[in-house]
Amino acid sequence: MExxxxxxxxxxxxxxxxxxxxxxxxxxxxxxxxxxxxxEPPMFRIVNKRELNSMVTLxxxxxxxxxxKAQAGQFIIFRVDEFSERVPLTIADYDRxxxxxxxxxxxxxxxxxxxxxxxxxxxxQDFVGPLGVATEYDGMKKVAVVGGGVGxxxxxxxxxxxxxxxxxxxxxxxxxxxxIVILEDEMNAVATNYYLMTDDGSQGEKGFVTxxxxxxxEAGNNYDAVIAIGPxxxxxxxxxxxxxxxxxxxxxxxxxxxxxxxMCGGCRVTVGGKIKFACVDGPDFDGHEVDFDELxxxxxxYKAREAELTETHICRMDxxxxxxxx
Length: 326
Prior knowledge:
By secondary structure, the chain is α/β, with parallel strands linked by helices. The protein contains 11 helices and 18 strands.
């Protein structure tokens, strides 16, 4: 038997029809259709891991949508878990068929140390990309790619892309000593000429990458461009080395970055006297126009805080385990 009742909700008078008990299930089904099940966000699985040296780790991560569009010069932003900070890393390599992206990073802060602790089969929360503008190689016939330290991880995809385009590539890789040399075989495979430099001469030639670059230019190598990637001081002095010769110089900048979409303004750099945002305007810029001193000052702002977090960080699982033991 059907009955009706009136109720007042705020300024509205509503007529409610009440059905017999036996129709309750039907009424609920009609009024409250089944909601679509909420899908969990995808997690990104680690499929390969290599320790390149005591401080540098290579991870190959399953990220098919990123791998489908990735190009040399672009980057990703990762989060280890839902409570972690967002950290940008340049794409070191990608495999479109396997659907994987390779990143190479130095364990310098809390987030990179947490990422390095992951093993094959583990997953991470976020892996967003590809972000940034891909490097342009139009008209290049002969290029020098200069990498410094872990920056060689970013120099490698540049050299590989140029090699695949049939460009003559001279690679100059610089490290403090032989113990931290990385990607030597990979660089040799894509370079027309590979020059390894160490500060102490323990492997390759003794000296800085700028020494080798200048000698190659003075020897008559007519480079269409020099691509420099590494510590900011290194990129600054490579740019100073090439400027008197009028050689186009591209540097890949690594300012502090948060959202990676140009919204926060944290990655602003001064290029040619104008403000640019590395995440959307770069990360590649004309090395002859970058204000490197300003960039170095901005990048050092949070060093003390990062060191403090590294010292005071407590793993939540360890804390819980200790509480249970007590």
